[in-house]
């Protein structure tokens, strides 16, 4: 194996994989840069981003504005679109060459695809789907926390003998990095040895999803519905309330599993983690897996006909009543403002 388990002292700096498409960085990258900045400052390290693509100049500038010290950039027409083979090879080679102490990826489809492959190739561990990271400033060991056993407990994992320490991090849980209007970063061009024969897949066409996917992670107001809505039409009622408040509609897994609404609306452990200013839970019991995705919301309002429903334990405001009466009344009341 290439990694010498006894020689982890050569590894330094905090890397963030800067997932991008068409020159736009994914929102989770800004969260990883916020978290990476904190870890880099606590350990006296550089915060670095690694970006792959073709003509990524504007992305490099944007990464600098979010406080990145060094941007490692790999440019090639072969990296224009994400392919597992090409991205895995280039990042694996860069890790072997530059030896980062910590590498963070968003737990997106791309990050979840890439990170385990890279971990296996550089012979290190990976903690997937982290919700919290803490670092020991002296030995730079990263404590990586993630939900385990169906969200019933939080497991803290360390990678004692191998480097880099690698995590995928859930979108929506870390603080975003500050953005500066003017900033610059050192740019290191990664030398790549990539040929078309390294890539076993070919992108023929990129088709935009026909589904009207919601951006729960960025919404300021979310009106969520659960099994207590009783039927799919309940979501039409919620949509009116969400529209009145300029928000979007979320859902519990039970409502998604019932086929009442698309999975892209699901909030919780196996859905999206959200942190809106206002979260209104309608006919949702408050199972631990749902709470795992929304309990950090600024203000939680719960509507449930059962006064003992666990959702009331996390709610700032609780309304005991039937959603079919309370939700239209709230919509009418807010419409008057
Ligand atoms: P229920 O638990 O059935 O609650 C319905 C609520 O509606 C009740 O509290 C009831 O009092 C109330 N109600 C009924 N009628 C009315 C009415 N007319 N007016 C007002 N209130 C009414 N769940 C998630 O949400 N997100 C996840 O990501 C998720 N991931 C999971 C992962 C794993 C591994 C597992 C095992 C489970 C997961 N779950 C998840 C499922 C979770 O355990 C719960 O089953 C689910 O959240 C329950 O959804 P619910 O609150 O809509 O339904």
From TrEMBL:
<dbReference type="InterPro" id="IPR001308">
    <property type="entry name" value="ETF_a/FixB"/>
</dbReference>
<dbReference type="InterPro" id="IPR014731">
    <property type="entry name" value="ETF_asu_C"/>
</dbReference>
<keyword id="KW-0274">FAD</keyword>
<dbReference type="InterPro" id="IPR014730">
    <property type="entry name" value="ETF_a/b_N"/>
</dbReference>
<keyword id="KW-0285">Flavoprotein</keyword>
<feature type="binding site">
    <location>
        <begin position="283"/>
        <end position="290"/>
    </location>
    <ligand>
        <name>FAD</name>
    </ligand>
</feature>
<feature type="binding site">
    <location>
        <begin position="266"/>
        <end position="270"/>
    </location>
    <ligand>
        <name>FAD</name>
    </ligand>
</feature>
<dbReference type="InterPro" id="IPR029035">
    <property type="entry name" value="DHS-like_NAD/FAD-binding_dom"/>
</dbReference>
<dbReference type="GO" id="GO:0050660">
    <property type="term" value="F:flavin adenine dinucleotide binding"/>
</dbReference>
<feature type="binding site">
    <location>
        <begin position="252"/>
        <end position="253"/>
    </location>
    <ligand>
        <name>FAD</name>
    </ligand>
</feature>
<comment type="similarity">
    <text>Belongs to the ETF alpha-subunit/FixB family.</text>
</comment>
<dbReference type="InterPro" id="IPR033947">
    <property type="entry name" value="ETF_alpha_N"/>
</dbReference>
<feature type="domain" description="Electron transfer flavoprotein alpha/beta-subunit N-terminal">
    <location>
        <begin position="14"/>
        <end position="203"/>
    </location>
</feature>
<dbReference type="Pfam" id="PF00766">
    <property type="entry name" value="ETF_alpha"/>
</dbReference>
<keyword id="KW-0249">Electron transport</keyword>
<feature type="binding site">
    <location>
        <position position="304"/>
    </location>
    <ligand>
        <name>FAD</name>
    </ligand>
</feature>
<dbReference type="Pfam" id="PF01012">
    <property type="entry name" value="ETF"/>
</dbReference>
<protein>
    <submittedName>
        <fullName>Electron transfer flavoprotein subunit alpha</fullName>
    </submittedName>
</protein>
<dbReference type="GO" id="GO:0033539">
    <property type="term" value="P:fatty acid beta-oxidation using acyl-CoA dehydrogenase"/>
</dbReference>
<keyword id="KW-0813">Transport</keyword>
<dbReference type="InterPro" id="IPR018206">
    <property type="entry name" value="ETF_asu_C_CS"/>
</dbReference>
<dbReference type="InterPro" id="IPR014729">
    <property type="entry name" value="Rossmann-like_a/b/a_fold"/>
</dbReference>
<dbReference type="GO" id="GO:0009055">
    <property type="term" value="F:electron transfer activity"/>
</dbReference>
